[in-house]
Design a protein that fits this description.
By secondary structure, the protein is mostly helical. It has one domain. It contains four helices and no strands. Helix 1 runs antiparallel to helix 3 and helix 2 (13-50) packs parallel to helix 4 (119-162).
Length: 171
């Protein structure tokens, strides 16, 4: 192995670490995305069951019991929040995947720049590393916004349930 190859390998360490971190991060976000997806499907199914009368006919919310109407109100408030969170997680994962692609391209550019001793190749590689990192940061911003929405949805459901029986349904 010649010295240029060794230099190229050592120069690739930073993007490879970022690629590894991005892969781990995207796996975690994909798990969150799946959990939100499953929760939306469960709530949609529950809503349909609450509005299904005898013999499979659909009923209006006015025709169900008070507790079922309360649950319908909670579901109707939370599903849009979950859908928004689902969209943010979708965007976060896509951005992180795009960042990973750019970082992989940067590794290739580093190898070319070091082995050919090209200044233009080195600048290209640096721009690719910075771009990939910035795109992954954008994914993290979407993921953080998703967490804020999650907290709002949980806070709403808990406060609404705690208010049951007290006459206060303003939450």
């Amino acid at each position: 192995m010649n010295l240029a190859a060794i230099s190229a390998i050592s120069a690739m360490v930073v993007p490879v670490v970022l690629i590894t971190a991005g892969g781990i991060l995207s796996n975690g976000l994909l798990m969150m995305y799946g959990a939100v997806n499953d929760r939306m499907r469960a709530m949609t199914h529950e809503r349909l069951q609450l509005l299904t009368g005898p013999g499979g006919s659909l009923v209006t919310p006015a025709e169900v019991s008070d507790s079922e109407r309360e649950r319908l109100a909670e579901i109707d408030r939370q599903l849009p929040m979950l859908l928004q969170r689902h969209g943010l997680l979708h965007n976060a994962v896509l951005l992180i995947f795009c960042g990973l692609v750019v970082l992989v391209l940067s590794v290739i550019a580093i190898a070319v720049a070091v082995t050919s001793r090209s200044a233009a190749g080195a600048i290209t590689a640096m721009v690719l590393v910075l771009t990939g990192t910035a795109v992954m940061l954008g994914g993290l911003v979407f993921a953080a916004r998703s967490l804020a929405i999650s907290r709002s949805a949980v806070r709403y459901e808990v406060s609404r349930t705690l208010a049951l029986g007290s006459g206060d349904r303003s939450h």
